[in-house]
Amino acid sequence: MIPASSIVAVAHAAGVIEDATPITTVIANAFSVVILSAGSIAMLSFTVAGILYVTAGGDEPRIRQAKNAMTYSVVGAIVCALALIVIRTVVNMV
Prior knowledge:
This protein is mostly helical. Helices cover 82% and strands 0% of the residues. It contains 3 helices and no strands. Helix 2 runs antiparallel to helix 3. It is elongated and about 80 Å long. The two termini are 43 Å apart. The mean pLDDT is 86.
């Protein structure tokens, strides 16, 4: 049977706990991935709204719909950028 003291010494020698990534960093990275994905989707929806605008053919309701979609896409991208700034600022403070 292996004594418990040698198991602790092996774990300490390997640096298992000391080398682990802090949970705050893991959570911040996860949030960053989600926010960057949402920002990418916002830019994709802006592109789709631009295509809707170009293909509206002078139809006022479709033009209005495309302009609203563009506005919401830009607002979404701004919110994502601000959220990313807040998360990175908070992580750097900790």
